[in-house]
Write a structure and sequence with these properties.
The complex is a heterodimer of chains A (about 230) and B (about 120). Chain A is mostly helical and about 230 residues long. In chain A, about 45% of the residues lie in helices and about 0% in strands. Chain A is globular and about 50 Å long. Chain B has one domain. Chain B has eight helices and no strands. The chains are: A mainly alpha (about 230), B mainly alpha (about 120). At the A-B interface, helix 5, helix 6, strand 2, helix 7 and helix 8 of A face helix 1, helix 3, helix 4, helix 5 and helix 6 of B.
């Protein structure tokens, strides 16, 4: 997926290739073709004039017209993907409730969040390194498994999350399973897909990069601020 | 907030307010270059980022510049997961950062506040 001269570590290269292949396969709630369409739609969002108009407006609900879409996903999915890609800092609970009311199950939503944002990581890294975006993977036939975690719990998020005991890590001052690690726990395959992509980029302690932990945390925090992310 | 924990481990008092501002020095080494790399990456200013990446590589080393961008790419994804699922802060973080969040403006990003603001 990446040319050999890009100074990326081997575990990251392998993880991203695995993610790209996995996106093409049937998931728990979406077919491979739908998952690849999600990636295509996330890319189309960056060229969407309605998204540009909304992003510049005082309200994220401003703007008339249609999204510039690239797929035949349901309109509610297209809108959700475009908002997540272009204006994530203004997603709200009432917006989320509208997506669910339009017929997207919590489980299907979680899988969409995972696929879209795993692809955001991969596409962002390609752009950051001056590389062309990778070609979309060829979808693999098959039906979704329907598997999900029936033990997920309501614990303050918009949807059920992984149940986890909160054991504190004294060094990081974070729970052993931070909330972000529980967020997609309703659909284990979705959590796995996203975190196999994310994990080679970051660690809470003893990071194995050419920048220090403090430099890493500054980069992470600055991205969070620019994306207006509370967590 | 993890930057504060990192500072405590390093016995360094980083200026956390500079994280949420568009300028300022946190005290992190090569903070200026890291800021430029991140801001161009998140704004999608790919042409400018190429020049910044080259200059940052001369200042901090090529591997460091690439690693900074790998972290930025990862957080460009994971922040969206948090935003799309409305997860609260971990209890320990919430309890230990009340003043910090208020003082540097992070509370403005709280999901309840956004719902009130944007509907």
């Amino acid at each position: 997926m990446y040319p050999p001269n890009t100074r990326l570590r081997e575990n990251l290269r392998e993880a991203h290739s695995a993610t790209w292949q996995c996106i093409a396969e049937p998931g728990s709630f979406w077919r491979g073709t739908e998952r690849v369409s999600m990636v295509s739609e996330a890319r189309a969002a960056l060229e969407c004039s309605l998204c540009v108009e909304r992003k510049a407006a005082l309200s994220p609900n401003a703007g008339n017209g249609n999204h510039r879409c690239a797929t035949n996903l349901e309109p509610v999915m297209i809108d959700a993907i475009h908002r997540m890609r272009t204006d994530p800092g203004r997603l709200t609970k009432s917006w989320f409730d509208g997506v669910i009311a339009a017929g997207i199950s919590h489980q299907a939503y979680v899988e969409m969040v995972s696929v879209v944002n795993a692809s955001v990581i991969i596409d962002t890294l390609h752009r950051c390194l001056g590389l062309e975006l990778p070609a979309l993977p060829a979808p693999i036939e098959g039906e979704p498994s329907g598997d999900y975690n029936t033990d997920a719990v309501d614990d303050g998020a918009w949807l059920p999350v992984l149940a986890a005991e909160q054991v504190m890590n004294e060094e990081t001052r974070m729970p052993s399973v931070p909330y972000i690690g529980r967020a997609m726990g309703l659909v284990p395959s979705a959590a796995q897909l996203f975190f196999q992509t994310f994990r080679p980029h970051y660690a809470l302690i003893d990071i194995k990069l050419a920048i220090s932990q403090a430099q890493t945390e500054f980069v992470a925090a600055r991205v969070s601020a620019l994306n207006e992310c509370f967590y | 907030m993890l930057l504060r924990a990192s500072g405590e481990r390093d016995h360094t008092d980083y200026d956390l307010a500079a994280v949420t501002q568009n300028s300022g020095d946190t005290g992190v080494p090569h903070g200026d270059w890291l800021r430029k790399l991140v801001e161009a990456a998140i704004a999608g200013e790919w042409g400018a980022l190429g020049d910044i990446r080259r200059d940052a590589a001369m200042a901090m080393g090529e591997q460091a510049a690439v690693d900074a961008l790998t972290v930025a790419a990862a957080f460009n994804g994971i922040t969206r997961v948090a935003d799309a699922t409305g997860i609260p802060l971990d209890t320990s973080t919430a309890e230990s950062t009340v003043e910090l969040r208020a003082s540097i403006g992070i509370d403005d990003y709280a999901y309840a506040a956004k719902t009130e603001r944007y509907g």
